[in-house]
Each structure stands twice: as structure tokens, then as C-alpha cells.
Amino acid sequence: MSKQIVRTVTMLTLVAGLMLAAGVVAANGQSSSSTVTADIPFDFIVGGQTLPSGKYTVGSATSLSGGTLRIRSRDGKSTAIRNSNLVTERNQDRQARMVFHRYGQQYFLAEVYSGDNFGRQLLQCKMERNLRYELASNASKSDSAKGSYEVIEVVALVR
């Protein structure tokens, strides 16, 4: 009887260990630890904070899931931290890039892709949500407001 209990406990421990290892491997595949680098030719906003144009690196701010991104200028003078969600790559070419939403002359960093199957979508700040709402309400009133939103993609390098 005790041999059967020991065997059952051993099997349960083995199965739990294998499941944990499989979960770690899957999580590592989804959260890229690589750093994306791009030269941004315009000022842009991350989480309500305006960052000047220049060379930027984007990487995980934590070593766990990659859900919090750190956007930092190459010279180290400008830094922003923003939470993000995992998104599946839509394009077939899977090129590393940074995606911005442009409203008039304001650019908001929206997504970062490192060229693999997944990317990170930054959470919208209050300023962008307000602009999007204002644009939607103005678009219903006139046709001229429809052209003031655009998606801009900047090619990046992965390091």
C-alpha cells in the first residue's frame, strides 16, 4: 500500500514538473527578450509623456513576461515605461517595426514588433483616447476630419 502511495506521489510530482517546464517554454516563446531599435523622425507620445525624435530602443522593463516596456533614447536622456498586451503578428513578412497612431501632428507609439510571431501593443493613454473620441465625433459631422488619423510604421532593427 505504501509503495503505491509513493508511486502516485512521484508520478504527480513528475507530471506537475513537466507541466511547469512546458509553461515556461511557452511563455519564453511569446515574450521576446530582444531589444528593438529604431530612428524615429518625429516627436511622439508614450503614456502622456512626449519624447523627442531620435534613436530609441524598446525592450522589456521586467525579466518576467515582457508586459511592461521601456522606451529609451540612445543618449539616455528620454525614457518612458508603459504596460502592453501581447498581440499576434498580422503581416506575413514579420518585419521588426514600431507602429504609431497619428492624429493631426501628434504621434502615439501603439505597437512594437521584433520580427517574430508576436508583438506588444501599448495601452492607450488618456490623451490618445480623448483624441480618438474627438475625431470620431467630428468625423460624423464633416468629411474633412476623416483624414486626420493615420497609422505610421517605422522599420526597426532587433538586437
| H/E element sequence | HEEEEEEEEEHEE
User: Which class do the helix and strand fractions yield?
Assistant: alpha+beta
From the N-terminal CA to the C-terminal CA, the straight-line distance is 57 Å
* Residues in β-strands, percent: 35-45%
**Tertiary shape:** elongated
Description:
This protein has 159 residues and is α+β, with helices and mostly antiparallel strands. The strands form 2 sheets. Strands 10-7-8-9-6-5-4-1-11 form a 9-stranded antiparallel β-sheet. The protein has a two-stranded antiparallel ribbon with strand order 2-3. Helices cover 28% and strands 40% of the residues. The radius of gyration is 21 Å and the shape is elongated. The chain is built from 2 helices and 11 strands; from the N terminus they run H-E-E-E-E-E-E-E-E-E-H-E-E. A hairpin with a 7-residue loop joins strand 4 (54-60) and strand 5 (68-73). Residues 20-32 have low confidence and may be disordered. The termini are far apart. It has helices at residues 2-30, 126-141, and strands spanning 36-40, 44-46, 49-51, 54-60, 68-73, 79-88, 97-103, 106-113, 118-122, 149-155, 157-158.
Give a nutshell description of this structure:
The protein is of the alpha+beta class and 159 residues long. Helix content is 28%, strand content 40%. The chain has 2 helices and 11 strands; from the N terminus they run αβββββββββαββ.
